[in-house]
Design goal:
Layout (H helix, E strand, L loop, with lengths): L2 H19 L8 H20 L27 H9 L2 H10 L1 H6 L4 H15 L6 H10 L5
Helix pairs in contact: 1-2, 4-6
Length: about 140
C-alpha cells in the first residue's frame, strides 16, 4: 500500500470518526479536514495518473488505435503512404515497452505490427466509434 493511499484512508477515517462519534463537539474545524481530504485526493490521483504528465508516457502512444485521428486516404500515393506509416512508430514504442509481456505470450513486434496493419484495414471503413470497433473485434475473438 502506498503512502498516498494510506493518507487518503486516514482522511476518510478521520471524517467518519468526527461525523459519527463526536456530534456533541460544537466547533469542528471542517476546513482543516477538507484540506487534508483534498490534499490526499490530489496526491492519490497524481500517483495513479502521473504517467499522463510524463514526457515519454506510453498513454498517448495508444492514440495510434484511434481511427478518427488517422490521415485520410485518397487515391494519391502520398496519402496511401501516410496512412500506412501512421502509428507505426507508436506501436513499435509500445512493443518495446511491453517487450516482456509479449515474450511471455510468444509474440514478436513484427506480429503486432502485422495485426496493427490488419486492424487499420478493417477500422478505416468503420462508421462507428473506436469503442464499438474494438468491441466488435473482441467479440469476434480477435479475428478481423
Amino acid at each position: 500500500m502506498s503512502y498516498h493511499v494510506s493518507k487518503m484512508n486516514f482522511c476518510y477515517l478521520s471524517m467518519f470518526m468526527f461525523n459519527r462519534y463526536l456530534p456533541a463537539v460544537k466547533e469542528l474545524n471542517y476546513e482543516y479536514f477538507f484540506f487534508l481530504f483534498a490534499d490526499a485526493l490530489v496526491m492519490h490521483m497524481q500517483s495513479r495518473l502521473g504517467d499522463l504528465y510524463v514526457e515519454n508516457s506510453m498513454i498517448p502512444k495508444f492514440r495510434a488505435l484511434d481511427f478518427t485521428l488517422w490521415p485520410k486516404m485518397d487515391d494519391s500515393r502520398e496519402s496511401k503512404e501516410a496512412f500506412i506509416m501512421h502509428g507505426k512508430d507508436e506501436i513499435e514504442t509500445l512493443c518495446v515497452h511491453y517487450e516482456k509481456l509479449l515474450a511471455e505470450h510468444n509474440t514478436t513486434c513484427e506480429e503486432v505490427l502485422a495485426e496493427y496493419r490488419l486492424y487499420k484495414t478493417h477500422a478505416r471503413n468503420r462508421k462507428g466509434t473506436l469503442r464499438q470497433t474494438l468491441l466488435e473485434i473482441l467479440q469476434r475473438g480477435g479475428s478481423i
